[in-house]
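Quiz preparation item.
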C-alpha cells in the first residue's frame, strides 16, 4: 500500500511538473529572445555552479565509462581540436570562438594551445561573466556580437571555432557564410552542433514532430539543421575554400545527457546554495534533458562535427 501511495505521489508530481514545463516555454522570437534566455541562465549561476565553465556536452570514449562530467567537457574540447586539425596551427594564431558562452573553450584554446582568442556571444551577461573568469586577458578576450553580422574583416582569423551555437541561429546559410568569410585562406573551421535527422530522407512522424517542437521552444531554438543540411550550407558558401568533412559524434556525447542530471545529485550544494528558485529551475529542465537523451538515442537528433579549410 505504501509503495502504491508513493507511486501516485511521484506520478502526480511528474504530471504537474510536465504541465508547468509545457506552459512555460522559451520560444525563439528573435536574437533578443536568445540573448534574454542566456542572460537569465548566466545571472542565476545555476549552469555554472552545476556544470562548471563549459555548458556544452562532454566526450566519452566508451559507453558508460566513468568520468567526471566537468573533465569530460574539457576532454571534448581537446578531442575536437585534434579531430579538426586546429592543433596544427602555430602558437599565436588568431582564433574566433562563435557562441563562446562564459568562455570555457576560449580559455583552453588560449591557455593550452597558445592561440590569440576572441570569443563572441549575443548575451551581454555571458560576455561579462567570461571576462570576469578570464585571467589571461591579453590573449583571450570577449565581445558582444551577433554571429550573423561579425564585425571583422574578411580573412581576419586563422581558425574559427563554434560549439552548440547553431541551434540558436535562424539563418543557417548566413551563419556559415560569416564564419567562412572571416577565415583566412588555408585557415581551419571547426563546428560542433546538435543536428536533426535529415527529414528529406526520413520524414518525421506526428510524435517526433511534437518532440522536436518541444526541443525548439523549451531552449529558444528557431530550428535545427541536419548534418547533411549544414554541410550543404558550408559548401554553398562563396567563401568555402575546400571540401567539408563531417562526423557523427552521438556515441561519444550521448552519455552527457544523463550525467547532466546526475550532477545535481553529486553536487547538491551547488544548487541548494542558490535557493529554492534555482532548485525549481533545475527540476524544470529535466523533461527537456530527458527528451534530448531519447531523441539522440533514437536517431531523431545527432551530434554533428564539421571541419573545413578556408
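Solution:
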Amino acid at each position: 500500500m505504501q509503495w502504491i501511495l508513493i507511486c501516485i505521489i511521484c506520478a502526480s508530481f511528474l504530471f504537474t511538473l510536465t504541465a508547468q514545463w509545457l506552459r512555460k516555454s522559451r520560444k525563439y522570437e528573435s536574437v533578443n529572445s536568445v540573448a534574454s534566455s542566456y542572460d537569465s541562465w548566466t545571472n542565476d549561476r545555476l549552469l555554472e555552479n552545476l556544470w562548471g565553465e563549459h555548458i556544452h556536452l562532454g566526450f566519452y570514449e566508451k559507453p558508460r565509462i566513468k568520468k567526471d562530467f566537468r573533465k569530460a567537457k574539457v576532454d571534448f574540447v581537446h578531442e575536437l581540436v585534434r579531430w579538426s586539425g586546429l592543433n596544427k596551427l602555430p602558437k599565436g594564431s588568431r582564433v574566433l570562438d562563435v557562441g563562446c558562452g562564459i568562455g570555457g573553450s576560449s580559455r583552453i584554446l588560449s591557455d593550452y594551445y597558445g592561440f590569440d582568442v576572441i570569443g563572441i556571444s549575443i548575451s551581454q551577461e555571458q560576455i561579462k561573466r567570461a571576462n570576469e573568469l578570464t585571467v589571461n586577458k591579453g590573449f583571450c578576450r570577449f565581445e558582444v556580437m551577433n554571429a550573423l553580422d561579425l564585425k571583422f574583416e574578411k580573412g581576419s582569423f586563422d581558425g574559427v571555432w563554434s560549439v552548440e551555437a547553431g541551434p540558436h541561429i535562424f539563418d543557417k546559410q548566413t551563419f556559415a557564410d560569416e564564419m567562412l568569410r572571416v577565415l583566412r585562406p588555408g585557415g581551419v573551421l571547426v563546428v560542433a552542433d546538435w543536428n536533426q535527422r535529415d527529414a528529406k530522407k526520413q520524414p518525421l512522424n506526428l510524435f517526433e514532430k511534437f518532440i522536436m517542437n518541444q526541443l525548439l521552444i523549451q531552449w529558444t531554438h528557431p530550428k535545427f539543421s541536419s548534418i547533411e543540411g549544414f554541410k550543404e550550407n558550408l559548401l554553398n558558401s562563396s567563401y568555402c575554400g575546400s571540401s567539408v568533412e563531417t562526423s557523427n559524434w552521438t556515441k561519444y556525447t550521448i552519455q552527457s545527457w544523463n550525467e547532466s542530471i546526475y550532477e545535481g545529485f553529486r553536487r547538491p550544494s551547488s544548487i541548494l546554495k542558490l535557493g529554492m528558485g534555482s532548485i525549481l529551475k533545475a527540476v524544470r529542465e529535466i523533461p527537456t534533458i530527458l527528451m534530448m537523451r531519447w531523441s539522440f538515442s533514437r536517431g531523431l537528433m545527432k551530434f554533428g562535427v564539421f571541419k573545413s579549410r578556408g
